[in-house]
Amino acid sequence: MDNRQVELTPQSAMNAPYINVLDQIDHAAVLAPRVARIRRLKRYIQKLWPKGHPTKFIHVAGTNGKGSVCRFLEAGLSLAGTAASYTGPHLFDYRDRFSVNGRAVTAAEVTQAWEDVVFPLCVDLAETDPKHVPDYSMCGILLALVLFDRRGVQWAAMETGCGGRYDGRMALDVEATVLTNVGDDHPLTLGDTRWQRGIEKAGISRKDVPMFTGDIQNEEGDAVRQICAHMGAPVHAIGPRRVQALRAELAASFPSGLPEASMLQSDHQLANAALAISVVGRLMPQINRPQMLEKLVDLTYDGRFQQIEDGVYVDVAHNPNKVAALMADVRGRLGNARITYVLGLSESRNAADMFTDLATSAVHMVVTEGSFKATPAEDVAKIIRTLNPSIPVEVITDPRAAIERARQVKHHGGADAVVVTGSTYMLDAAFNPDPYMRKINASYGWRFRASAS
């Protein structure tokens, strides 16, 4: 009889690399094809650029702020030449994903890059390897590479789509990686704990390539550090002291205060800027820091607490962490103003998780719907009414009519400001001035559905 006993400890130390291996064993049938997809994309890139792509890339991941960090990196690196960023999703026009020296590429450039290079590659593969025709994400990456090559881009920041380890940008050779933070995003695809998401996002690290991170604490921070150590990637963490130092530096450099529209009015954007400044300082130390600060102070980014008219603000806040950042902006920049919120969710979001703080701070709410994957407005409204029974909650499914109603509330003295937030699809339906773009943005995938039927 074996009298040996298993020794149990109250809490075992995390072994993130081993946990990742166990996850891959459990889900090899799903994850191996994702790695194979990255390898195929790398072969396509090598075929198109046999001597290597001329642009130096920075791969950026994170729950929030990765798009802003990409734009900050682009702005800073543009002081040394031609710099670019590839971000997503777009708010109004697909070409806005591709920014070169602070300006979106033209529709003609996208058209030519697609017709000359990317679509012919897709068609060739449809003949020779039809199961592996590039998907939407891969086509976007290839388009970015063609556009940046044609523009002579020297540096480009590339925003991760979702997660990191299995993202298509892993096919790129990069000069640095950036992880902004680890929060509460995509639980169904990245895991329902933060440490799982940390393992996934830190997977963008590469051997001997510096990884720059924001202030990532607790188990998710342990996961990130362990994965980077396992990969052999040196880590440069940008903590609160760097952010505080940047705040003091800006106060000294701009004694009359920052412009009201500056992104750096927001604490979370200040952290994003500190991260981007550290990356640029390490990769291109010759860039003039005061000039970079001026660039970042003047930078704007559509849908990031953006004032579109007097007393009306727009913010893309589509996960709980983004809503928390929005609420910090509202308190910091609007003070005690009485707010009417217009909001709409996509189908994968939970209103109770998203809008508890927002609902308790509102004086009036108008719930609407986006044009694609929308959560029914009445369902959201029912939850909002339970969160704050004391405020009026209206349902107006047309986003433009919903915003007009919020304007009326403000005009008649029922609120001091209007904040429109939620999914990009709702903001697109509400504000996109181009009816053709609104139609295209709202109808992605209709041919797939037609083929299936």
What shape does the CA trace take? Answer: globular
**CATH top level label of the largest domain:** Alpha Beta
| CATH fold topology of the largest domain | UDP-N-acetylmuramoyl-L-alanine:D-glutamate ligase
- Strand percent estimate: 5-15%
Average pLDDT for all residues: 92
Number of helices: 18
In short:
The chain has 453 residues and is α/β, with parallel strands linked by helices.
List the keywords.
453 residues, alpha/beta, UDP-N-acetylmuramoyl-L-alanine:D-glutamate ligase, Protein-Tyrosine Phosphatase, Chain A, eight-stranded mixed β-sheet, six-stranded mixed β-sheet, 18 helices, 49% helix, globular
Give an account of the 3D structure.
This protein is an alpha/beta fold and 453 residues long. The chain folds into two domains: 16-298, Mur-like, catalytic domain (UDP-N-acetylmuramoyl-L-alanine:D-glutamate ligase); 306-442, Mur ligase, C-terminal domain (Protein-Tyrosine Phosphatase, Chain A, Alpha-Beta Complex). The protein contains 18 helices and 14 strands. It has helices spanning 16-26, 28-48, 66-77, 107-128, 136-150, 187-190, 194-202, 218-231, 240-253, 267-283, 289-298, 320-334, 351-361, 377-387, 399-411, 424-431, 435-442, 446-452, and strands spanning 56-61, 83-86, 98-100, 103-104, 155-159, 174-179, 211-213, 235-237, 306-309, 312-316, 339-344, 362-367, 393-395, 417-422. The strands form two sheets. It has an eight-stranded mixed beta sheet with strand order 4-3-2-5-1-6-7-8, sandwiched between helices. Strands 9-10-14-11-12-13 form a six-stranded mixed beta sheet, sandwiched between helices. Helix 1 (16-26) crosses helix 2 (28-48), helix 3 packs across helix 11 (289-298) and helix 15 (399-411) packs across helix 16 (424-431). The longest helix is centred in the N-terminal third of the chain and has 22 residues, at 107-128. The protein starts with 15 loop residues before the first helix and ends with a helix. The model has no long low-confidence stretch (mean pLDDT 92).
